[in-house]
Design a protein that fits this description.
single chain, alpha/beta, Pyruvate-ferredoxin Oxidoreductase, domain 3, 24% strand, globular
Length: 191
């Protein structure tokens, strides 16, 4: 099997690390060689952050270079645009339509770009955009956006839903498991 490259991007505090643990666990359980690299950046201050996940029969490096990502899972629109150049031709961006203003926008030093998703689509990127916040709230917490997105991504893979749910049990604390199952299923169903 060829190596598949996934980038999980967002801003600090959105649960990107849990999402990457879930992905790494399910891929390992499927028997793939998996490499994960977490780049923390300015995560403590809501800055841009990225995790690279690469898997296949034999993977030597976790780093995804420009034009190499098969998937970008973006927790926020601007982050999808920031990393779009890393996507290979024919790759897919799965993006939450939520807007989270970066510090320069908050302080008035910059303006949030308009029509980000439309511009990505016009540039030829395959963009799968949807509101992940509403199903996260339905599941019980706005913090479940990460698991909604992972459920949506899971539906794009050949790995069965039950395998994903088993991995979820391994990485989520028991008191949050039911909420995360619901979030995963809502994302998986494309809601």
């Amino acid at each position: 099997m060829k190596t598949t490259s996934v980038m999980i991007v967002g801003v600090g505090g959105q649960g990107r690390l849990l999402a990457s643990r879930l992905l790494g666990t399910v891929l390992t359980d499927e028997g793939y060689d998996v490499k994960v690299s977490e780049v923390h950046g300015m995560s403590q201050r809501g800055g841009s952050v990225v995790t690279y996940v690469r898997y296949g029969d034999s993977v030597y490096s976790p780093i995804v270079t420009e034009g190499e990502a098969d998937y970008i899972i973006s927790f926020e629109k601007l982050e999808a645009a920031r990393y779009a150049g890393c996507l290979r031709k024919g790759g897919r961006i799965i993006v939450n339509t939520q807007r989270i203003d970066p510090m320069p926008v908050i302080t008035g030093a910059a303006e949030y770009p308009e029509n980000i998703l439309e511009e990505l689509k016009e540039a030829g990127f395959l963009v799968d955009d949807f509101d992940a916040l509403t199903p996260a709230l339905e599941a019980g917490s706005p913090k479940a956006v990460n698991i909604v997105l992972m459920g949506h991504f899971a539906a794009c893979t050949s790995i069965g839903r039950e395998r994903w749910l088993a991995a979820l049990e391994k990485v989520v604390r028991p008191k949050f498991l039911e909420m995360n199952r619901k979030a995963f299923d809502l994302g998986y169903a494309g809601k």
